[in-house]
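REQUEST ID: PR-0412
SUBMITTED BY: lab tech R.K.
PRIORITY: routine
TASK: structure prediction, single protein chain
INPUT:
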Amino acid sequence: MTTKTRMIRHTVAALGFASLAACAAAVPAVSHAAAPAASAISAPRASTASARIVQAVGAENEYADVIRQIGGRHVSVLGVINDPTTDPHTYESSTKDAGAVAKAQLIVQNGLGYDDFMGHLEAASPNKNRTVIDVGSLLGYKTGANPHLWYKPTTMTQVAAKIASTLASYDPADKATFNANLTRFVASLTPWKAALNTLHRRYAGTPVAVTEPVFDYTLQAAGLTILTPHRFELAIQEGNDPSPQDAQIEANLLSQKKVKAFFYNQQAVEAVTTKLLGIARAKRIPIVGVYETMPLAKDYQGWMMAEVTAVAKALGQGVSTERIS
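STATUS: complete
OUTPUT:
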């Protein structure tokens, strides 16, 4: 979802394919294992008092997680938006967030209007030595593009590389460590990308419906065809009522079983979504709930893999995964 003007408030603010398991087994696990809640992400204290600790903030917990994976014990990280049980667009910044931004040397934010509150926090505590990585700008996107960039398979490789080089500029003595962590991180994305390729090979062109464009980048990477009217997606994304015509087209996709799966943002369920979920369940169309905020028990790689596995189960077995555990 992008900025919902009616909701954002600133304070300053298996198929079960064997191939999935095989791919996962083929790549060594990243040593960090499952990440804790991003708001609690904080690197262990360095072994010596003289070790450099870079203060960092990720506007969303998935970016905070990648900072931590690249920086390891050389970073202390706060994830600002970190609750996967609520709509992130109702976020209000806190004094804790403001304090973290004030002392941060590195900030990673999504951009594209998704987390405009960060600009307010940064402006309240100017720091010429602070580096802000705006992911939308880094990737060359313009305002108006789908802002859910973490679901695009090429995004985090580029973000992680920028994080590694930025950390090295603050802590040159540990550049080799950051580069080694970057290499491990990029390798750890291989099972996810392999699973997407498998989906593409088996299901390219398969019609699906969505409530909004949260998961569109992944669905497109898997070669699936989104039949939902784009106007409908944007209306729901912005918290507006879709036109009666578009709402009827969307309902017909489900009631007439024109799609093989239905994807919805389980963090922002309103009346129109509830109605569509009821139709999908009645017609036994598999449902997949997707997230804007990384689930607390996952790291970025685990989150992406869980979502793709849910797609595989929906298309291959007709199994719904409305929540990721």
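NOTES: The radius of gyration is 20 Å.
REVIEWED BY: pending
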